[in-house]
């Protein structure tokens, strides 16, 4: 199974793709769609950005051929205008996935952080660091891309197919508990719980 995670945004939108091969995770690709400038007033009208989401995401879907689309749930935002634009961008991504016949799943930011890092209030740097460990990626140009891969990891883990054994969910949680007690590195904490093979990037 191939999973495509999307971190929605009206100016930057991250994507991350993973394969499930047997009971192992394999990194496929990641990237960020730049829809508008990231500071000051947006230099591209919203309707053009929504069209770009459809076009860019359609291109990625056609190239990577995922079966599942995973998108971050809408969360409360203090700025109503920003929340509205984020919702429209998210809707464009969800609709694009539906047009291409993908299965759709969603997870809250706290759910993703709990699975990937072990606690629901981790910051973006902690998430990116754990995603690098779990996927073998050397790094990310934006947190949007690492968050998107984290969504894909979360779905794989929640579906019970990213593990080395049937009891890997419990093993990962136990590893996290041991990490907290012994202050081990996160790499040591998850080394026996999840597996990644053959890291590669599809161009």
Written description of the protein model:
- The chain is of the alpha/beta class and 203 residues long.
- The chain contains 7 helices and 5 strands.
- It has a 5-stranded mixed sheet with strand order 3-2-1-4-5.
- A hairpin with a 4-residue loop joins strand 1 and strand 2.
- The longest helix is centred in the middle third of the chain and has 20 residues.
Summed up:
The chain is α/β, with parallel strands linked by helices and 203 residues long. It has helices at residues 46-64, 80-99, 109-116, 124-135, 143-158, 168-182, 186-190, and strands at residues 2-7, 12-21, 24-34, 68-72, 103-107.
N-C termini distance: 19 Å
Shape: globular
> Per CATH, which architecture?
2-Layer Sandwich
Whole-number total of structural domains: 1
Give structural attributes.
single chain; 203 residues; alpha/beta; Nucleotidyltransferase, domain 5; 5-stranded mixed beta sheet; globular
Task: Chart the SSEs and their pairings.
Layout: E1 2-7, E2 12-21, E3 24-34, H1 46-64, E4 68-72, H2 80-99, E5 103-107, H3 109-116, H4 124-135, H5 143-158, H6 168-182, H7 186-190
Parallel strand pairs: 1-4, 4-5
Antiparallel strand pairs: 1-2, 2-3
């Amino acid at each position: 199974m191939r999973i495509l995670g999307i971190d929605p945004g009206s100016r930057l939108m991250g994507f991350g793709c993973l394969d499930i091969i047997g009971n192992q995770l394999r990194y496929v690709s990641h990237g960020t769609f730049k829809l508008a400038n990231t500071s000051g007033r947006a230099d591209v009208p919203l309707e053009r950005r929504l069209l770009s989401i459809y076009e860019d995401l359609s291109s990625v879907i056609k190239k990577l051929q995922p079966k599942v689309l995973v998108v971050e749930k809408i969360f409360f935002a203090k700025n109503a205008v920003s929340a509205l634009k984020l919702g429209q961008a998210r809707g464009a991504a969800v609709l694009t996935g539906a047009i291409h016949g993908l299965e759709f799943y969603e997870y809250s930011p706290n759910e993703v952080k709990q699975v990937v890092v072990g606690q629901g209030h981790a910051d973006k740097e902690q998430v990116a660091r754990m995603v690098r460990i779990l996927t073998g990626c050397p790094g990310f140009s934006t947190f949007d891309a690492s968050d998107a891969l984290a969504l894909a990891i979360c779905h794989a883990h929640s579906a019970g197919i990213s593990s080395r054994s049937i009891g890997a969910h419990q093993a990962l949680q136990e590893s996290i508990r041991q990490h907290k007690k012994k202050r081990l590195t996160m790499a040591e904490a998850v080394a026996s719980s999840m597996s990644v093979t053959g890291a590669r990037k599809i161009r």
